Structures are given as C-alpha cells and as structure tokens.
Amino acid sequence: MKIGYAFHRLTIGARLRTGFAMMLVLMAAITVVATVRMATNQARMDEITGANNMKSRAAMAMRNTVFERMVALRDVALVGSASQVDEEVALIDAKARVYGETEQRLLALLSSDRERSGPERAVLTEINQHESEARPLIGKAIELARAGGMDQVYTILSVELKPVQLKWMDALSRLVALEDRNNELATDEAREASHFARNGMIVMGLVATIVGIAVSMLITRNLLAQLGGEPVYTAGVAGQIANGDLAGEVALRDGDRSSLLHAVATMRDNLARIVGRVRLNTETIAGSSFGIANANHELAIQTEQQAASLKAIADSIGNLAATVRKTAENASIADALAISASAVAKQGHKVVSEVERKMQSISASGARIVDIISVIDGIAFQTNILALNAAVEAARAGEQGKGFAVVATEVRNLSQRSATAAREIKDLIADSAAQVQAGSELAGEAGQTMQEILQSVQRVTDLMREIRSATTEQSNGIDLINQTAAEIEGVTRQNATLVKETAQAANSLQQQSEQLADLVALFKVEGLQSPLPLSNPAPVEYESATLSGKPPASRKVGRERHIRLIEG
Fold first, then answer.
1. Helix, strand, or coil (residue 511)
2. Residue 337 forms part of a structural domain
3. What are the CA-CA distances from residue 214 to residues 3, 29, 223 (Å)?
4. For residue 342, is it within any domain?
5. Are 362 and 509 in contact (CB under 8 A)?
6. Block means of pLDDT (10 residues each) for the chain, length 568 residues?
7. Out of 112, 173, 201, 485, which could bridge 314 as a Cys pair, Cβ 3.0 to 4.6 Å?
8. Where is the Methyl-accepting transducer domain (predicted)?
9. Into how many domains does the chain fold?
10. In this structure, are 211 and 115 located in the same domain?
11. What is the DSSP string of 209-254?
C-alpha cells in the first residue's frame, strides 16, 4: 500500500522513468547473469576441449607408447641379427622418451588443477610404480638379446614382464577411462550449467515480463486513474467545451473524484452554471436597460414640457410685470389728478364748473382704474394658479426643486397681496366714483361741501400713494419671479440635456447587453439551448415641447395631476 501510494504520488514522467528503469535493471540483470553463465560454460568447454582432452590424449599416448615398446621388445626376441636388435632398441628408447615427455605434460596439467586431480594422481602413481617394475626387466631383456640369449629374453617377456605389463597397461587404461569419465562429467556439468543458464534466463525473462506487465498495468492504471479516461475522449470533451458546447454529459468512472476528466467535467458544470447565470443576468439587464431607456425617453419629454411650461410662466410673469408697471403709472397719474383736484377745490366756487368737469373726468378715470384693477385681480388669480402649479412641479422635482418651491410660495403670497390690494383699490375707486357722482350732483352746493371734498381728495391721494408703493413692490417682486423663472428654465434645459445623455447611455447599455447576450448565446447549456428573445425597442427620439398646438399626452397627465392636487 505504501509503495502503491508513493508510486501514485509520483509525476507521470517519474512513473514512466521508474517503470523503464525497472525494465532496464531487469534486462541488465539478465544480461549480467547470461554473461556470467556463458563465461562459466565457456570455461568448462575450454576445460573439456583443452585440459581434459589433453590429459586424455596424454594418457592414451602413454598407453600407446607402452604398447609400442612391448611390441618392439617382442621383436627384439624374434630378430636374429644385432643390427635389427639395435634398431628395435632405438625404437624402444624413442618411445620411452616420448612416454617421459608425455608424462611430464600430464603432470603439468594435473598440477594446474590440484583440487580435482587426486584420483588421477593416484592412478599415475600406480602407473609409475608399474613402470619402475617394468623398466629393469626391459633393460635385462635388451641386454640378453644383445648377448644372444633369445630364449632367456622370451622367458623374461612371457614370465616376468608380462604380468607387470598387464598391470601397467591396465593402470594406463584406467587413467584413460578416468580422463574420459572426467570429460563426460565436465560435459555433463557444462550441459547442466547451460541448462541452468537457459532456465535462469527463462525464469528471469518471465520475471522481467511479469514485472514489466505489472509495472505497465500499474502505470496504465494510475495514468487512467489520473486522466479519468482515454486521452482522446478527454481531448474530445475539452474540444466540445472550447467550441462552446456545455450541454454534453461527461462519462466518469464510479467513485472518480480527482482525475483530469473529473476536473474537466467540474469545469464544464461550473462554466455551464456561470454561463446560465450570465445569460439570465444579461437578459435581465437588457430588459432593465430597455425600461430605463423608455423611462428616460418619457422623462426627457416631460422635462422638455416642463421647460416649455416654465417659459410660458416666465412670459406671463413678464406680461404681468408690464401690466403692474402700467398700473403704477396710472396710480401716479391718479395721484397727480388728486392733487390737482385738491388745488381746484381750494379755489372755491370759481371753478365749480371746472371741478364738475374734472369730477366727471375723475369718474371716467375711476371707471378705467376699476377695469385695470379687475385685470390686475385676474392676473393675480392666474399668478396664484401658476404659483400652485410651480409648487407642485417643484415638489415632484425633489431636492432640485426646493429653491423653486420657495420662490413659487413667495410669488403666491405676492399675488394674494396684489389681489387684496386690487380689491381694496377697486372698492376705493367705486367709493370715489360714488363720491364724484355725488359731488357732480351737489356741484351747486360745492361751497358748502368743498371741505369734505378736499378731505376726500386727500384720502384719495394717500390711497393712490399706497397703491403706487404697493404696485412698485409688486413690480419688483414680479421682476424677481421673472428672473427666478428664467433661471429655473435654464436649469430645466440643462436637466433635459442630461436626461438625453442618460437616455443615450441607456441605449448604449442596452446595445452592449444585447451584444453580450449574443456572445453568451454561443454556449450551449443544458436547459437553455437557445437564448431568450430580447426586446428590440425602437430608437429613442426626443421631441421638444412647444407652446403652440395640442399639448402632448404627458403634459395633459401632468396637468390632471396638478388639478387633482389643487382640488385635494
């Protein structure tokens, strides 16, 4: 388990190197063992073909020389001339030298292998003993042959030398057999070593094969466990993800929680979840941006309408200011007339008729003033209505309309004061007209009532001064309202510009959200195979509000709201 766990923790390169290294080590071990066994077999074969064969040939040569010496010695007993004896004796001596040389070679070979040459040395000792026994008999037989005692030579050969010869030959035969046996044993050992080497190489080859199969299976199993499947399948899944196909299922092995394919499947699931959320959010953003664009479009129209309404209010206030200024001028004229009437009244009866005419003129002027005051009263009422509308619009404007609300309230107060003053003036003018009418009727009694007329004229003068003062204040207030309305109109125009820019930004946001939705639609997600249809609103067009013609529906809605607020 520990080895498998440690092997599992190795990298793929390390695993492959480890597996190939194990195979190389096994192959090297097989090569070394095969080399050693082949060297051993070669040594045994060299021993068989070299030392053992040489010893066997030496033993056979020694036996052959002994046999040849015995044959030559028999020939010595058979020949009759001395020259023939010498020839045979020379042959015997030559064979004896060959025997000695061969024996020395054999001793040298036996000396090089003292551990296994014990039996051979024992036989060779026996051979030397038999040689020592035979050598004097051979010499004696040669001497008797040279002396002409052939019968004695024959007796020695047949009686004394033959048993020794047989033992000698038997020992040499046993030495030859022993060497042959050693050759057979060496051959068997070499054959056994060859078989052992072959079997060892087969076993090691089988072990190497089994180990190689086990290592390859272990590496393959670990690689497949880490990859989670065939690399071609993993590459195909990655290719599908790269092409945007996130709807396909990934086939995982049971219990696979850490492989590359599991990581790819987890990445595909996470990407599918992310793309699904991005797609839904993109569609939500697109819908919201569409709503924002429409709302900004409506707001832009209403802002333009508000600016036009403010311009109309400013124009009305300008007209009202001109009317008030005209009223102030008329009040000044009336004041001058009142002063003149007072001077005329002081003249007494001399100018009664003139007073009567002036009173008629005053009566006419009073009627005119009544008409003007009626106009002023109507203007004040309209100003009050406009101030109420301005206050409502300021309340709808929120924080930016607070200053305008204050000004609208002040304008309303001034209009109420103007209306009150106009009603008072109207009442006074009506009263003055009645008095003038009475003065006309009582012109004959001017002398008696002149003092009363003078007092009334004085009162009229004071009232006209008050009217002039109030009219001046009203004119200044209206000028301030006019200036404020102009400023509010400028701010409203700026707001309209900002609203247009906001609407353009909303349109840009909508287009970008649609582009993002198109990009996200490239991914195929299970359950959302095709993107939801996005609304494609018409481009937002801004219309400037005008004062002429039929007002837009939004302005009607705004006015209806204002009326409901006023009625409430």
1. helix
2. yes
3. 13, 18, 14
4. yes
5. no
6. 58 68 74 70 57 72 81 74 77 83 78 65 78 80 75 77 82 80 76 77 82 78 72 78 74 75 79 78 77 76 76 76 74 72 64 69 75 79 79 76 74 79 77 72 64 70 76 77 77 78 78 75 60 39 38 41 40
7. 485
8. 281-510
9. 2
10. yes
11. HHHHHHHHHHHHHHHHHHHSS-HHHHHHHHHHHHTTEE-S-----T
